[in-house]
Design a protein that fits this description.
With 472 residues, the chain is α/β, with parallel strands linked by helices. It has helices at residues 5-17, 26-34, 71-82, 119-130, 258-272, 301-310, 314-329, 335-349, 372-383, 388-392, 458-471, and strands at residues 42-48, 54-58, 89-99, 102-110, 136-137, 141-144, 179-187, 192-198, 205-212, 224-227, 235-242, 249-254, 276-277, 281-283, 291-297, 416-423, 426-434, 440-448. Helix 3 runs parallel beside helix 9. The model is unreliable at 1-20 (pLDDT under 50).
Length: 472
């Protein structure tokens, strides 16, 4: 292994950590006591990003559940190994002949793992197809999602909420995060409650049983229930009551399967753009003889990393891990290849991640483990990397944007850039804080407390950031 300056700095960091195990700074100790958190549940490290000198640490080498702070490892590894200009490609292929805008054959939609194929970008993909002159599809639509090979998973396994956006499963042809927003609007004139789905996949059925009732908006007159009674998630049922005095409300849920969602929204947009399709659909690999027709590029990796970290998007982080595995070890992508790719990258980088356990790269996991010292080593390497500007700019700014928009609002603007992390019984921060001296410090703080609640430990992290800014 080549010993780079970063590798030597990491070794020095590990040596220093053994001597930096004193008591927490007074404001941090006070916060720990006020929250009644046991000291064994707390880990943090504060180190000078230039010298690697540790200014404060507590239980720095204890492996912890990091929640979404692990995204700093996933996103920097992707940025460092793939480069900021890396893109994914969604393809349309044809099997058959096109004559005067009519395809007499099948249209194949082949996903390449684009992490951010929003509805707007999916619409643009449809428009690029229409711009070729194609307007009528006389065959079927084939969905090819073979770029990823993932075992069947239960999206309810993590917390019993399978239709929440954060539980969406990766797919090579993931569109709009597989989400549908339902807007419920009382319609006094027609004496009904209207439901609009955005988007409205052609294969999603909506059973509207909400009754419009008179009176004030409250109690029975404001109770609406939502259920997904079909195993394919292709039918939703609304029941309950709503008063005309109630404001419009919205419900967003993950529905259909990823291939089914891609098909249903594609046909919706295709028809809205004037295209014709009356065939069927299936999921299958593109046949060897299919002809490439249109290729649609994703946003760049630098843009994807920014969106992933600013808004802590689990699905996008999972796509990054899978992509790293596919690029290093070949298609199809899977979780094992992704985890091996990050381990190999860390070894090449000279980063001490021997105690890290990573599964899906997002932090939505009970098995992922890393110490605050290991995470600090990654953040210090990122700060001195060739892509430091792209990575640092991806982290939420305290009191300004992303997941920190409403937190740490008293900090000097731009002085704290931190990735947050929350699960039941887990909270953390990881990033960069500028001290009173003008020096920049890596700050990583993680609390693993057995009590339920996603906010346990937040005051500890806030106190550590405040102490760093005031005392250093």
């Amino acid at each position: 292994m080549i010993r780079t300056p970063a590798a030597l700095a990491c070794c020095l960091l590990l040596a220093l950590s053994r001597a930096a195990l004193g008591a927490p700074p007074p404001p941090v100790a006070l916060a720990i006591g006020n929250e009644h958190i046991g000291l064994p549940a707390v880990s943090f490290v504060v180190l000078d990003v230039e010298s690697g000198q540790i200014a404060a640490s507590f239980n720095p080498s204890t492996p912890r559940s990091p929640a979404s702070t692990i995204k700093v490892v996933t996103t920097f590894a992707a940025l460092d190994s793939l480069g900021p200009a890396y893109t994914w490609h969604t393809q349309a292929l044809i099997q058959g002949a096109v004559d005067d805008g009519v395809l007499d054959g099948d249209l194949i939609l082949k996903g390449g793992g684009d992490p951010y194929m929003t509805l707007e970008r999916w619409w643009k993909f449809v428009q690029e197809l229409r711009a070729t002159g194609l307007h009528t599809l006389r065959g079927d639509i084939v969905i090819d999602d073979t770029a990823f090979a993932l075992p069947p998973d239960d999206p309810a396994a993590f917390d019993g909420r399978p239709h929440q956006a954060y539980n969406a499963e990766p797919s090579a042809i993931m569109v709009n995060f597989q989400s549908v927003e339902f807007r419920l609007v009382p319609n006094s004139g027609a004496r009904r409650v209207d439901i609009a789905a955005i988007p409205a996949p052609v294969n999603l059925a909506i059973d509207n049983r909400i009754a419009l009732v008179s009176g004030a908006c409250g109690g029975r007159a404001a109770r609406v229930a939502f259920e997904v009674p079909s195993a394919e998630w292709d039918r939703v049922e609304f029941t309950g009551f709503l008063s005309p005095q109630c404001d419009a409300r919205s419900i967003t849920r993950v529905l259909l399967s990823a291939p089914s969602y891609a098909f249903g929204t594609f046909v919706q947009l295709w028809r809205e753009s004037g295209g014709t399709f009356e065939g069927k659909w299936r999921v299958a690999a593109a046949p060897p003889g299919a002809t490439p027709f249109v290729s649609f590029d994703s946003l760049t990796l630098a843009e994807i990393v920014r969106l992933t970290n600013k808004f802590s998007n689990n699905l996008m982080a999972r796509h990054l891990l899978l992509t790293m595995g596919e690029e290093r070890y070949g298609a199809p992508a899977n979780l094992d290849k992704g985890a091996r790719a990050i381990a190999a990258w860390a070894l090449e980088r000279g980063l001490p991640l021997t105690d890290m356990e990573i599964d899906n790269g997002s932090g939505l996991s009970r098995s992922t483990r890393i110490s605050v010292l290991e995470m600090a080593a990654v953040l210090r390497a990122a700060y001195h990397s060739r892509y430091a500007p792209e990575f640092i700019a991806s982290l939420p700014l305290a009191g300004i944007d992303g997941t920190l928009r409403s937190r740490m609002q008293s900090t000097q603007p731009g002085s704290a850039r931190l990735k947050t992390g929350h699960l039941d019984g887990v909270s953390g921060i990881a990033g960069y804080v500028t001290g009173a001296s003008g020096k920049v410090y890596v700050v990583v703080s993680i609390v693993n407390d057995a009590r339920p609640g996603a906010g346990v430990g937040d005051s500890v992290h806030n106190a550590l950031v405040g102490w760093t800014q005031a005392a250093l």
